[in-house]
Design goal:
alpha+beta, five-stranded antiparallel sheet
Length: about 140
C-alpha cells in the first residue's frame, strides 16, 4: 500500500472514532431520571408510621438494586453518612416505575436487618440515590 492509502485509512478511522465518541451514547454513563411528588393518597399508611405520602417516579421501568435517602447537607461534608432509608436488592425484584418513601418494595430489603425508614423533617433538603445494576440516578427533594 502506498502512503496515500494509509493516510486515507487513518483519516477514515479517526472520523469513525470521532462519530462514535461524540454522537452515540456508548461511552456515556447510564442514568435514570427521578422525580417526586407529595400526595396524600394513602392516609392510613401515613397515620400508621408517620411517614409522608411522598411518591418517587422514574422515567422508565427498571429493576431496582439499591435505594437510599440521605440529608444533602450532611452528605456533602461526609459521603459515608448513615442513610435515613436504605434498601438493597435480594431476589425476585420486579420492574418498577414509582414507589412511596418508606414503602416495603418486593425484592428489596433493608440494608440493616430490622431497620425502619426515619421520618423526614420539613425544610431540609434530602438526596435520593437509585441504582439499578449499572444504571444510577439521584434526586434532591424537600418537604414543604
Amino acid at each position: 500500500m502506498t502512503k496515500k492509502n494509509w493516510l486515507l485509512i487513518l483519516i477514515a478511522v479517526a472520523l469513525a472514532a470521532t462519530y462514535v465518541i461524540y454522537f452515540t451514547d456508548w461511552f456515556k454513563p447510564k442514568t435514570v431520571q427521578v422525580f417526586h411528588t407529595s400526595r396524600n393518597l394513602r392516609p392510613r399508611f401515613q397515620a400508621a408510621n408517620g411517614l409522608p405520602g411522598l411518591i418517587f417516579g422514574l422515567n422508565r421501568q427498571i429493576i431496582l438494586t439499591e435505594i437510599s435517602v440521605v440529608p444533602l447537607a450532611v452528605w456533602q461534608t461526609n459521603n459515608h453518612v448513615l442513610p435515613l432509608w436504605h434498601l438493597i436488592a435480594t431476589t425476585n425484584a420486579l420492574p418498577r416505575k414509582a414507589f412511596f418513601y418508606g414503602e416495603r418494595i418486593p425484592g428489596l430489603k433493608p440494608a440493616v436487618p430490622g431497620a425502619r425508614p426515619a421520618p423526614l423533617a420539613t425544610n431540609i433538603v434530602y438526596r435520593l440515590f437509585v441504582t439499578a445494576g449499572k444504571i444510577e440516578g439521584q434526586h434532591d427533594f424537600e418537604l414543604k
